[in-house]
Design goal:
Number of helices: 13
Radius of gyration: 21 Å
Strand content: 5-15%
Bound molecules: NADP nicotinamide-adenine-dinucleotide phosphate
Strand order of the largest sheet: 8-7-6-9-10-11-12
Number of strands: 12
Helix content: 25-40%
Amino acid sequence: MAKPTVVVTRAIPRDAIDVLAGACTVDENGSDAAYTPAELLAHARDADALVTLLTDRVDDALLAACPRLKVVANVAVGYDNIDVAAATRRGVVVTNTPGVLTDATADFAWALLLAVVRRVVEADAYVRAGRFTEWKMLELLGGDLAGRTLGIAGFGRIGQAMARRGRAFGMNVLFTNRRRVSGALEDELGARAVDTATLCASSDVLSLHLPLTAETRHFVGATEFATMKPTAYLINTARGPIVDEAALVDALRSGAIAGAGLDVFEREPVVHPALLTMSNVVLAPHIGSATVATRTKMALIAAANVLAVLEGGAAPNPVR
Ligand code: NAP
């Protein structure tokens, strides 16, 4: 019997390709350049499985053109790039990679937080430019964390990991979440649930950890910025469109908030040009989960999801 075909849309860690190749014919885009939609369609047309990255748009039209397809394994925890409802209607299983990137992503959110609050990138540029000619009392002053309030929007795996980091830095932790979180978990993490308005108004640092859905698009916009403290910072390592980027630029320009740390953008890879000019903004190219071990684990989980479905079993990480 012919082996099933798995299309891997982008270079992923070799270990996962080796696992797939043991049972499948792998049609691998070994390059780090994304397929165009036409290239994706051409490769996916006869595929039994797709291993996708968050930049691959898997919509109903693509699914309709791939009659053999049984599983789309996204190498990410977020899956807003996939029309899950359309896939489910067509009997195609969609999977993600939850859990293994929680700490790496929270670490990176914390790195952005420290970088913007303590002006690390500005300080680095200052030294490299030869401006460190003498120590000065009033140079590059930043904000404090201990005793301040960390607001977390989306209290799932990464949101809770942020709460742990916040407590370790002596911060008070508030959060908002769709589902009610148990009192025991609140007690364990020393975090208190509030509504979104209270979260925005009370936070010294507001960090976003929501999935991108129709409901969370522009979760933070002009209305929310208007209620935030002028000394507050926004950290976004979730998804760009959760923040109204034009409103963020206005808020930074007007001093409605003090700064931002951004790993994700509304129209990736395009970054609002004004953000590139602002010294109170720290920018990163969507690298929240980018550690060697984490990316390897993510790819191996995607491969395990593919093989489980192709072998007729249940995928370990289905999304609905
Ligand atoms: P998770 O465990 O599913 O947590 C998401 C949380 O958001 C859940 O607790 C969920 O509530 C809550 N939520 C959903 N919609 C909401 C709403 N409208 N209002 C308030 N809360 C809402 O996911 P995770 O593993 O923490 O990942 C979170 C997101 O981070 C991912 O979806 C992904 O987009 C992003 N991410 C980015 C990177 C990066 O590289 N920058 C890396 C990893 C993840 P329920 O309890 O009701 O479901």
